[in-house]
Amino acid sequence: MKDQFDQHIKVVQQAVEQIPALEAMADRLIACFNTGGRLYLVGNGGSAADAQHIAAELIGRFKVKRKALPAVALTTDTSTLTAISNDWEYEYVFARQVEALVTSGDILWALSVSGTSPNVLRAVETARKIGASVIGFTGKSGDPLANASDIVFRADHTDSDRVQEAHLLAYHLICDKVEKHFATCE
What number of CA atoms fall less than 13 Å from residue 55's CA on the CB side? Predict the structure, then answer.
């Protein structure tokens, strides 16, 4: 367990170097929401749970009361997920939703520890064709997602638990900055 804590601390210390990217992500979200845009989130497994967590923080509240912000996790509609997976392929499970819902004023936030999930990358490709901005969260080996994103946060590890721990901290920092902005606007 001591080794696990040491790895965690090292990943978090390395994440500090990416604060400018996190601030840029928060600023982009603020601008998006200020112009009537929406945030859509995608991810598989633990990243799907993170997508839902982020949406909940923005729609509900993180720490203070403020207006609800439009965030949608595309991981939650089981009828849509199963229909697309059955009628198309699982690779299109998010891309079809992006095609139907996302506009050029929106942001797609893609989470993939490996950065190589075909369904996440297909969604990113679709969002980029629409003209939406893309925020990427990935791990050390996540070149495909990192290269396809406008702004990326990359946890410096390959194990999903260490990567997701860093992702959790990073997206809470983003939610905090976004929330503080909108709390002061009321």
Answer: 24
CATH number, domain of 113, equals 3.40.50.10490
Please give the Cα distance from 103 to 81 (Å, whole number).
Answer: 20
Strands 151-154 and 133-138: parallel
Structural domain boundaries enclosing 40:
2-184
Amino acid residing at 136: G
Instruction: Give how many domains the chain has, as a whole number.
Output: 1
Q: What is the DSSP string of 71-122?
A: EEETT--HHHHHHHHHHS-GGGTTHHHHHHH--TT-EEEEEESSS--HHHHH
For 165-176, how does the pLDDT look when each residue is reduced to its tens digit (9 = 90+)? 999 999 999 999
Enumerate residue ranges in the chain where pLDDT < 50.
none
Tokens, residue 36:
């009537």
Cα–Cα distances (Å) from 184 to 52, 68, 70, 76, in that order, read: 25, 14, 18, 31
Q: Are 32 and 102 in contact (CB under 8 A)?
A: no
Tell me the average pLDDT of the chain. 96
Could you give the 3-state DSSP secondary structure of residue 34? helix
Decide: pTM greater than 0.90: yes
